[in-house]
TrEMBL record:
It comes from Flavobacterium nackdongense. InterPro entries: 23S_rRNA-intervening_sequence, 23S_rRNA_IVS_sf. This is Four helix bundle protein. Gene3D superfamilies: 23S rRNA-intervening sequence.
């Protein structure tokens, strides 16, 4: 997958999460969770763009770690929503969980590759 394809994929993930969140019922508790998920999912897309502009291997790696953390946080909030058994489009929720899980796998593998190429132990 090219950088451009991954940029588009992360942006589409953020858009899909936002659309999903717009369909949820409004209440204070759901609003808090929605805000957290919106921030983390949009951060995946925004920070991946920053990864693509990394100035050095160390900069690239640090930014990639942020993207990985935000993707994992998004996965957490999606699983949390699933656990709450809210009225929602469960098919879409499962698609988002799958996509978040795949993004975590992609970014985790990228971190491992960068560390191996640069002989970084930690």
């Amino acid at each position: 997958m090219t950088k451009e394809e991954l940029k588009n994929r992360t942006k589409q993930f953020a858009l899909n999460v936002f659309k999903f969140l717009m369909s949820l019922d409004n209440c204070k508790a759901v609003d808090v969770i929605s805000f957290q998920l919106f921030k983390s999912s949009s951060s995946v897309a925004a920070n991946y763009r920053a990864v693509c502009r990394g100035k050095s291997s160390a900069d690239f790696l640090n930014k990639l770690k942020i993207v990985d953390e935000e993707a994992d946080e998004s996965l957490f909030w999606l699983e949390f929503i699933k656990g709450l058994e809210l009225k929602c489009d469960n098919v879409e929720l499962e698609k988002l969980i799958k996509e978040a899980d795949e993004l975590v796998a992609i970014f985790s593998a990228g971190i491992k590759t960068v560390k191996e190429k640069n002989n970084i132990k930690n």
